[in-house]
Amino acid sequence: MKITTFVKGPIDANNYLLVDEETNEAVLIDCSSAEESYINEIKQSGVNLKYILLTHGHFDHVLGVDKFKKVFGTDVYVSKEDLSQVKLVPDMMQMFAGMVPVNISDINNFVADGDEFFIGKTKIKAIATPGHTQGGICYFTGNSLFSGDTLFQGSVGRCDLLDGDFKQITESIKNKLFGLPDAVVVYPGHGPKTSIGYEKKYNEIVNL
Questions:
Q1: Which pLDDT score is estimated for 166?
Q2: Which CATH class for the 2-202 domain?
Q3: How far apart are CA 79 and CA 201, in angstroms?
Q4: pTM: predicted TM-score of the whole model, two decimal places
Q5: How far apart are CA 194 and CA 15, in angstroms?
Q6: E strands, the chain, where?
Q7: For position 196, what pLDDT does the model report?
Q8: DSSP for 35-77, written as a single string
Q9: pLDDT tens, 115-157?
Q10: How far apart are CA 198 and CA 154, in angstroms?
């Protein structure tokens, strides 16, 4: 499987394009921008974009979904618990980024803990990790975890926004993510990648 990182949007969110190299089927994890250059880059790669999987519903991870759906005809998945966050996108844009608000169309495909998606023979499993939002989802495949804003290098997602809960996020990380093998590479929603083993040893916020 090939993984390409795109840092896009007003708060430099990481978008990850996963491609099964045997079939050229692909999934995009988070979709933070509708820039033409971004869309064209994925178009020109020639992949068959089967899914857009959202880690959560905050504006800085979803701003491109309407345009991507229109261009690629791709289904978008979010947890039901985070539909309320998607509806708040215009308010959050004004509050935190001073941006012209954008409404995101209704998302009608839902992902829940344990759901599986396939690109070719590559399986991607959803892991519910509430805390940053109530509907936070991580995606696990092979030796890679896409952690959204749940787990960062040396840190965790902020919990002071609507529906955030610090106790929940630390429990999600300790009880679910830290049960994965130490060698698993963590691709977060912002910033550099890390590993489960590194975070178990050095993440002082989780281990308060």
A1: 95
A2: alpha beta
A3: 30
A4: 0.96
A5: 16
A6: 2-8, 13-19, 25-29, 48-53, 75-78, 109-110, 116-119, 122-128, 137-141, 144-148, 151-152, 155-156, 185-188, 194-195
A7: 98
A8: -HHHHHHHHHHT-EEEEEE-S---GGGTTTHHHHHHHH--EEE
A9: 999 999 999 999 999 999 999 999 999 999 999 999 999 999 9
A10: 8
Q: Residue 31 and residue 63: Cα distance in Å, rounded? A: 6
**In this structure, what are the phi and psi dihedrals at residue 24, rounded to the nearest 5 degrees?**
70, 10
Q: What's the pLDDT score for residue 208?
A: 67
Is 150 within 8 Å of 172 (Cβ atoms)? yes
Domain segments of the chain: what residues? 2-202
Closest C-alpha to 77, from 128, 127, 112, 32: 112
Residue entry with tokens 């869309």: 39
Please compute, for residue 115, the number of CA atoms within 13 A of its CA located in the half-sphere on the CB side.
Answer: 15
Give the C-alpha separation, 160 to 119, whole Å. 36
Q: Residue holding tokens 């969110």?
A: 13
Residues of the chain scoring pLDDT < 50: none
Assigned token pair, 149: 């804003």
Nearest to 133 by CA among 150, 151, 146, 145: 150
